[in-house]
């Protein structure tokens, strides 16, 4: 952790002399380094009162092969190194949904490495390699401002598989196809190794394809209902979905997502390990923007999401979340205030075999993100967890944190 703190000081020094370059189709190499620090305190309730320090380093680089050979169609290679350190907020809060989206087993790993080819003026895209499913699937942009993990991907989706799906902090090998049928319709399909890493070693990014592990098949259809003016939304905060190598412009349109997933391997039923069932789930989500002025980036946005999973084999049978975000301009930069909730509901089989459990856990989050510099963002955060882990013996948890993000990047 000391090395990462030193790295933050280096960032502060370097970024005072660097101007972050914007993504450009004429760049051969694009890079970005982001350091996130999250001091966190559980003030009351949960398993115990206490303080933890979590931090996360993301190092990404994208090589645009097409620029090297002056090709018209886009061909790129992407590398993503990930480092996680510090404690676990869950050890104090006892929650199921995980209050911190940078909480992970301490390790350094190659999180993603893939090659992507775009065709037909970027209407069709094919990607192969170690791939973060949640970088493109089940994403509602207003929700990305929040720190609780369930606002990044639904709780019923995140729980799936032997070691989770191919998402932070452990990815798996796969193929992703994406097609923009029109400017308003986008369809994605991903086929991934059914087991991410090694369930017995959370620090491992092992690739071991086998018939027993099977595959995870994910599909999503996005419908964009209206167009926002891209130049009017200048997001200052950094998330895993907006790092170098992703879509150059994350759509800020009103949209609806409809998706589903399935594992080809079967899983044991809760309470009966001799009976196996297919593992599947589905979700729907939507985001909406209202702009206050034609001349600046002040707006109000809302999102809502509902998902289900086969509750005969998955603990969480359904999850619902939603929130509201206000973006305003105190200066030339944009700050954000957000309030959101996420409720993860135990399935029928779980309640049958654990009747002492509460029916659901609900996370409430209030957050405020503001940039001190173009390269430095501060985000105070408050979370209140009702029925942590649906365990009646654990009192409701009240916790606070302060996310600090420093970044530098550029292009050659």
Concise synopsis of the structure shown:
The protein is mainly beta and 412 residues long.
Please explain how this structure is put together.
- The protein is mainly β.
- The protein has a single domain (2-411), classed as Porin, CATH 2.40.160.
- Helices cover 8% and strands 51% of the residues.
- The protein has helices at residues 2-15, 65-69, 90-93, 155-158, 348-353; strands at residues 29-46, 50-64, 75-86, 107-119, 124-131, 172-180, 185-193, 215-224, 255-269, 272-291, 299-309, 316-329, 334-346, 360-373, 376-386, 395-411.
- It has a 16-stranded antiparallel β-barrel.
- It is globular, with a radius of gyration of 21 Å.
- The chain starts with a helix and ends with a strand.
- Residues 1-21 form the signal peptide.
Q: From the alpha-carbon coordinates, what is the Rg to the nearest angstrom?
A: 21 Å
Oligomerization state: single chain
Instruction: Give the distance, in angstroms, between the N- and C-terminal Cα atoms.
Output: 31 Å
Work out the strand percent: over 45%
Q: Which CATH first-tier class would you pick? A: Mainly Beta
Number of beta-strand segments: 16
Q: Give the biggest sheet.
A: 16 strands, antiparallel, barrel
Shape: globular
Per the CATH scheme, the topology name is Porin
Q: Topology as H/E string?
A: HEEHEHEEHEEEEEEEEHEEE
Q: Which sequence of strands runs across the widest sheet?
A: 1-2-3-4-5-6-7-8-9-10-11-12-13-14-15-16
Under the CATH scheme, the architecture is Beta Barrel
**pLDDT below 50 for ≥5 consecutive residues: which ranges?**
1-25, 229-235
CATH homologous superfamily classification: Carbohydrate-selective porin OprB
Name the structural class. mainly beta
- Domain count: 1
Helical region count?
Answer: 5
Overall helicity: under 10%
Keywords: Signal
Protein name: Carbohydrate porin
Organism: Marinoscillum luteum
InterPro entries: Carb-sel_porin_OprB (IPR007049), OprB_Porin (IPR052932), OprB_sf (IPR038673)
